[in-house]
Amino acid sequence: MLSYRFEIQDIVAQDSSGVTYLACDADTGSPLAVQRFFPFGADGGGLFDEQLSEYAAIVDRLVGLQHPGLRALLSGGCDPVDGMPFVASEWIEGESLAELLQLQPYTSADVLDVLERVLEISQALSDVLGTDAVWVETATELIIDDAGENRRGLTFELAPMKWLGHQDSRHSLLPLAELTEDLLGWRRNHMPNQAGQGLGAWVKWLRANADATTLRQARAHLVRLTGETVARNTVSAAGHSRWPLGTTPPALRDELSPPNELPMHPLSLKKPFFKQPWVLLTALVLLVGLAGAGAWWQLRHPVAHAASNAALAGKVFASGETQLIMQAVSREVTVEGLLAKIGPGPDGFWYVDFQGSTLGREVQGYFKTAKPSDELSAQALSVSIGQRIRITGRVEMKITPKEKWPLLLLKNPQAIQPVK
């Protein structure tokens, strides 16, 4: 059960489709990621009856599957109170692919390595679930480079909303084309056929056939249009051998059941009358009134507590308002405080530190560069230690098993301004 086994520690991300928490497994003491998602939207209900049984059957098939590039699913189910589905998976410490791409663009060979990994994982999962699809998230901000002891390289997370048939194009292979464009920097631009040593031609073909082709066909065309590069069976930088993409990796092959035992169909999301949102809302009000469960409401409806864009417009946070700033993840905010330091941190990036906080780890601003420009150096010299400044940037979260704090990604030197 979500509320007993998993000790929620913090909100990592949230949007209209659900919430991701950093949690602690009460059974093992290990950190993990818990995703609670909304099959009917943030204001809708959860899964009941046959929907719940179908969802549980899918989770049962996926729990325990192992692959270096897959953040393993450890547990899953539905909340016994409101039927909201959740999954718990490995917590991986590291930078996102989006962050890595900001530091250095990927070469064609790098892109082929990423495609090889995501095709391999998707094929293995499709063999389990009985339906060809890209069953992992391919947004670059959700792909994490494992920086732990194992150094597994890029890791992908499962995409639970596709299990529910909530995404109309869930069987389309279009995410592979979009990921390739993101990696090569061609998203929302016309990608010529010759781009990326044949990757441009593959993307064009895949976009035209995304709804009808299979993963194996996509892989075959990738080999044909880019040469033999993707077909090589080498060892990745993380030290894990890769397998031919038309086969199931050995780590999965020995554990997987025949794919035809559980045909994969979208779960029925048609809600009976008594499960309509207004009926559920009425029942929820009664439940809250009887139980007085303010904490219950906060856990199950965290989207209501997120900072809205309207509330953030024109607002200046004090550097010590850490908890409020963390509610604005992925949004741009302005923070004011007394400057403690500007300079390189342990990772080589340039950081802006504020003077001490009594509310825990202080917010930091940072420039994702190890070599400051002349303009940045001049801006750093224009402010002095102890001076009141404002910084403006996009909120990110730095979370480790022991502590957490918000970071503001600063785009340019003008993001630092003295307060007169």
Compact description:
The protein has 14 helices and 14 strands. The protein is α+β, with helices and mostly antiparallel strands. It has a five-stranded antiparallel sheet with strand order 1-2-3-5-4. A five-stranded mixed β-barrel has the order 9-10-11-13-12.
SSE topology:
Elements: H1 2-5, E1 6-15, E2 18-25, E3 31-37, H2 50-62, E4 73-78, E5 85-90, H3 97-103, H4 108-129, E6 144-146, E7 153-155, H5 160-163, H6 174-184, H7 199-209, H8 215-226, H9 250-253, H10 277-291, H11 294-300, H12 309-312, E8 316-318, H13 322-326, E9 332-344, E10 350-354, E11 364-367, H14 374-381, E12 388-399, E13 404-409, E14 416-418
Parallel strand pairs: 8-9, 11-13
Antiparallel strand pairs: 1-2, 2-3, 3-5, 4-5, 6-7, 9-10, 9-12, 10-11, 12-13, 12-14
Helix pairs in contact: 4-6, 6-7, 7-8
Describe this structure in words.
With 420 residues, the protein is of the alpha+beta class. The chain folds into three domains: 89 residues, Phosphorylase Kinase, domain 1 (2-Layer Sandwich), CATH 3.30.200; 140 residues, no CATH class; 110 residues, OB fold (Dihydrolipoamide Acetyltransferase, E2P) (Beta Barrel). The protein contains 14 helices and 14 strands. A five-stranded antiparallel beta sheet has the order 1-2-3-5-4. A hairpin with a 2-residue loop joins β1 and β2. α4 packs antiparallel against α6. The longest helix has 22 residues.
